[in-house]
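hey team, just a heads up i'm posting the complex here instead of the shared drive bc the drive is being weird again. everything in one block, sequence lines first with there labels, then the predicted structure for the whole assembly after. its four chains so it's a bit long, scroll down
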Amino acid sequence: MSSPKTIGNKAPVLDYKSAGSLLNPLKNLQFLGRKAITEPLQPRLASLNYRGFHLNDWEACVGCASCQKICDNAAITMVEIPGLKNDPVKGIRNHRPAIDYGRCCWCALCVDICPSASLSLSREYVHTCDQEHIDSYFILPDPNGMHKKHFGQGWQKTEHSDLLSLTRSAMAELEPANRDTNFNEIVHGFTPEQAVVEASRCIQCGMCHDSCPTHMHAPEYIRAIWNGDVEEAVRQIYRTNPFAHVCGRVCTRRCETACSVGIRGEPIAIRWLKRYAMDQVSHDRIKQIVKEDGKPKASGHKVAIIGAGPAGLTAAFDLIRSGHKVDVFEALPHAGGMTRYGIPDYRLPFDTLQQDIDVITSLGVKIHYNCRIGTDKTMAQLQKKYDAVVLAIGLSKGRQTRIPNSEHRHVYRAVDLLQKISSGEEFELPQSAVVIGGGNVAMDIARSLARLQKQQFGEVKITVTALEQQQHFMADPDEIKEALEEGIIIRDSCGPQGCEIDKSGKLIGLKTWKVVSIFDEEHRFSPRYDETEETIHAGDSVIEAIGQFADTTLLGEQLTEKLEWNRGRIKIDPNGRTSEPWLWSAGDCVSGPDVVHAVADGHRVAASIQQQLTIKTNKS
Amino acid sequence: MRPENYQAVNHPPSHEYELNFGPNHPGIEGNYALKVKLQGDIVIEARADGGYLHRGFEKLMENRLWIQNIALVPRICVPDPVPMEVCYSLAVEDLDDIKVPERAQWLRVLQLELSRIAAHLFTFGGHAATTGMYTPMYWGVTDRDLILDLFEELTGGRVYSIYNLPGGVRQDMPEGFLQRVTQTMDYIDGRLKDYDNLFFTNQIFIRRSKGVGVINQQQALEWGVTGPNLRACGLAFDVRRDDSYLIYDQLDFDIPTEDAGDAWARTLVRRMELVESIRIVRQVVQALPDIKGPVRTPIPNPLAWRVKAGDSYTRVESSKGELAYYIVSNGEEKPYRVHIRGPSSMHAVQVLEKLSVGCRLEDVAQTMFSLDACPPEVDR
Amino acid sequence: MNSAQSQSLNVLLQEIEGIQLTHQNQRRLRADISADALPALLALLRGRAGYVHLSAISCVDWIEDDQFELVYHLWSYETSILISAHIRVARDPGIYLSVFDIYTPAAFFERDIHEMFGLYFEGSPDMSKFILTEWDGPPPMRKDFDSEQWVMDNFTWQDYHPDWLKQIEQQGGGVVKSADSSRKSS
Amino acid sequence: MKSTDLDRIEVNPKTMPKRTNPLANVFDDLVRFCRSRSMFMLHYCTGCGAIELPPAMTSRFDMERLGIQPMVTPRQADILLITGYVSIKTLKRVILTYEQMGSPKYVIGICSCTVNGGMYWQSYATAKKLDEYMPVDLYIAGCMPRPEAVIEGLQQLMDKIKNDQANSWKQYYENYDYYLGNQQKLFGNNWQTPTDVIGEAEIYRLMGPQTLGEHTKILQQVQKPMEPLEMKL
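-- predicted structure starts here --
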């Protein structure tokens, strides 16, 4: 064995070898006169970031249970407290953490992960009890402290200690310059690496699931994406939503509003993750996954569905998988309803929509195109031939402002124009246009026209006017941002007062007054204007995008008479059934314009029909 | 008190008898036992008996998320918990290629060195008590408490700081903290001469400890002795310098050594290390205000964090010697295997067993304290 | 260390048959060898390369491969390179050779591995239990031993029922059983 | 435990003779007051919490001003302070220690681990609830409790002793079967200690209906007389 070297120098300290007088210890007798260092019996105040007993701000806490998940020691139990705010849509549960001090180690990881920053630790640290009061070790932290006395704030979350990742994983999208002359899809979707990073941000609180109208299993498919198992993700998605491609692109995503991570940061990009999962799996494989449950036993019942939009086709998807025969009647040459004719190609490419529809038709759903009920067939015929009929006709007609001169032929409804654009029909492209409305439809038409104008005239001349202030627009903030990037002018707080027409009868613009307030004291719609601030927005056409209504003429007079109505809409029970026992109604025509609501409606109606038909089967 | 695994046999010869030295014995450090066979009061055979503090850390860590383990690791060595945290964090950073901001590295060094001072002060106390001197124990424990006050201010916890995360430290230091560190260091610096008078140059201590539990350099290397105990045999080896981590290579400090290799030399090396640690702390205090930047590199959401597959053997110098973590990750949310190589696993078992033989019974306790053996670290 | 030392170390290690060297970083060298060649490697390192310090022996239970991985961490005070020698040993019957005759500290680590993993080391001076003297279950560090399940089978937990909980239960609330049960079903 | 037959032990508790002297109560109060002012704490570091005891015992927090001092042997100690987790191996020693302490004796469990397993709730090596194995007078919360909290707890214990509320040691005799059962569950049916708990219960007149039961029967069957032993090295 080689001997190791002795390296390094010795520290210069006292020479202990020679020292060591017996008298040395006596030098310390000097301490006799010194002040004692003993602390008083009263416990000291702990330091400013001491990790003492828990505090929880109940107002801020949303009951997401991430503290429970990160707890080392399974010390945290969620307790449901009736009487607290419980709003799944806003992402608030009436659950609050209770902590077992027989487990807790005061590591404060729960504080550092808390998405709402409601949990913190105090400077209190003394608690004793005897065997009979051992229950006092299980506490429900509130803002008042463990013994109803506040000892001051201890450990709190800071920007350094925050454990959540609050910013989204970046995703590539088309630059404005590359997109304003074409209808190519703007966002590219996540790459696998980006998707896994984004999925890893999820804390699995399930708020998204609760807030989703159709209760999609978002935590599960996000977890599956994180695990790299996209097929499992698709399986989870199809548990509740056959319009997965569509919802992966154009969903109103209430889930992201409810997302706990979004309280202080950017919510998880749940919509894009869904899209990622759907894009990763091949179309044929998706069809296989959907059919994994096996072929159902034929029930012998037949169901007719009017309208091949998301609601109708979702109901068809459910019913065909329960073994019923399903016929869908569509007035137009393509399925998809508003998702086909209302949403421009750059947001939702037609072929991805077609994939969703293809999955549904591959199950055996028969869609009769160009078959308009009311003209080609009557409701009475359907009632006779089918065991149940679903009315999923959507909102196909645009509302009108009825302002002066709005009957001019250059005043259009946005839905009509959008339908023309997406079906490739010829129409007179306005050189300059003024859009009334601040919703997504207004943005869709404005941006579609902008693209066409850029293509044809090389410049964009579109003004969007709306009653609301820009930050309160109904439209998606992303849409507004992108519209501005594409050269669209947005004028907010503008109340339309009339279309301006010159002597030759040509439309020259829209007159608006400045909006002072939109709602009155009782929150009813009653806009008030400042008449002195009048603006004329120049444009050779005006487009109204202020909402849609359903075209119920197909019902026929007799049935219209028979049905019960509720403020212009067909009256339905919570399951979507109308006053006629054979007729159900679903989708935008009952719950307003939203894809994911329509899907939820479709499921609800299908379940109700299934229940009804089972009763019928059992009877016979 | 008799453990029930005793077996009834004949009486041993009357001049030889055995003694259970621990687990509940005032001379033992922590909850640990030595079974010694005595002839008169000379130990002729000794067997260590551990496991009284066994918690199965390595198993527990396999069942917990990477982040959750940071609350667990300091508990492995109770008197000196900080190196445990830092070593675990370093190992995970090594596995996952996380770069630690410079400010965090300096803060870690500050914390490590304060912890070393605290641990050494505590050990003196114990060693003094085993030689019958209780005042150094009172002093040592009380002065250590001043450092715990600093920890409380910096980290929010007195003993278990749970201050290090993979990626850095959890919070920046509070305002005016460095002044208080300087004050405390000045105070402890000034106290050292009192300790010298009372303890290190005390004839009682010198006569009791000189020549007790002698290890020569050859034996030390053979038996796997590390840390101050190795340096007390004349080998100037220190992980901080020779397998450098954090920013120790930017610091100016010496590695004190002694040649005697006995209990006295070991304690003296620690006494000299106090000076070095105070020196390091002073350097950190001077440098820290100029080092700006974040204190932590963000890690992914800890609830869904996979550390890259691989293995890492990471060492740090704890107050007791070489501390190492061998962590194997198979790319999952939890470690696949964590092996903790505590310095005391050598010192408290094989070395102590060998050194006890030939000692007088009263010196066994002293030997153990001079080796600074830490039972929870042996048992894990 | 300098490159000459590193060179000579590499040359020296090539004497061992079937050795695979990976430089993980400047101070970490990973050596994968067969179990048969390990004693020769250790003897070589100890005798001719100045590797006097056995830092640790770690055992990893690769249950899916039905193997134990033993890792010998060796340190030289001269070259300042830590060599980790990795070998694989079959899980069943779980017998390997002791390296006590080359490195004394091995005795502790082998004893520890024996009680924690059940891997027996032939020639080790003491294979009796040290920590788990009162334990008669399976070697706990094996992957097939489920610690949490064992705890659930053998222990009970506090059954807290404080006043505030009683009040909440009267109002219709109470402890949420599992995180998922709180979610709405579709 | 001495080898006795079950039959010999009277199962019914003897009633304490009624005190007629009015001064007796005053005398009892005085005894309890003095008892609370002079306690010896057994110095047995079972777990992490022990690290906060040296500060509590020494100059800075100074528990000696409460009249509490560490004591090294169980025979002379009044307080058994369980400082955190008890591994199963330690628990045996803790029970042996507890039984050897002279009555009245007080048990304090500090840290989370003594209450519900604490950090080590998943560990195969530690006992989870101390009160299953011995009655506990006081718990002090914390992981670990600061010295101030320990001192506060000790003061509370003093108050309880003074007010005659700290009588957990009686429970051990009265419910011996329960405690023994839990011990047997953990250590196996061969478990026995050198202390004759049942005999002591008889002497203290604390034989309750729960003192004897199925578990003590097992003990009777398996216990061997204690003999001089040799340690195997």
